[in-house]
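sanity check this:
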Amino acid sequence: MTHRHIIGFGEVLWDILPDGPVPGGAPMNAVLRLRSLGWNAGIISAVGNDHLGSALTDLLRTHSVDLSLLQVHPDLPTGTVRVSLNRNGEPTYDIAFPSAWDHITADDRSLDAVRSADAFIFGTLACRHATSRNTLFQLLEAAPFRVFDVNLRQSFYSMDLIEDILRQTELLKLNMEELFILTGTESGGDVKGAIQKLKERTTAAAICVTRGENGAVVLAGGQFSEHPGYRVAVADTVGAGDSFLAGFVSEYVQGAPVSRALDVGCALGAMVASRKGANPTINANEIAGFIEKQKHIGT
């Protein structure tokens, strides 16, 4: 590969957790994790001209994320989300509206960055306002490899929007609940059957469905691959799916077997779930050590 460059698009914000605020937003979480895996990574988004925006910018700078694509909105505030956790550490979200990332605009710099990227990662949440939604569709036309992280939140999506994006996707990632919603399958129903139904509606060469502590299943090349997941003591699950995606994409776009991409993705998801917040520091050596240790535990 002549370059290792991935671009994320969408929300950057602060998750207001019971223990205090931590940086978040699915595309930003994925970009930060990709930086820790050695990728050059940037985020096309917007923050407010406020102290929360400055703090996010400082964080991204600390992790050497490309800030040239980050916009500052003069009037709207930096995004915040109030996060409540149930007894299993599973989150629910109250997402502030409007926020700066609702008004992301496209320019030559962002279009050029997307054209040259190995992957372009995005979800549905940033489409809740027409400005960012229109920008996304401009960028999708430029992107050579589009990674759709469905990421349904509250009522900030429509089925028409999702159908449009499904037809402009190379890699599709969603969780079990989202799979059942998009396919009209009863909760707890036939997962592989639902994936096959979804495959008929998308251009994606690979569909990846995460199953929480039970790992993930992927349909690619007409074949299913599964990973049972890694067992850990869960601190909270905020950002675990984003780190799974980063690990999976990192391997997949370099041509690794799906089994390897699943292994790295599941390891990262489990490691993040075992720690507080969406972006705990984890390096490549820790991932390798975790996988090796888990193999010994399983034998």
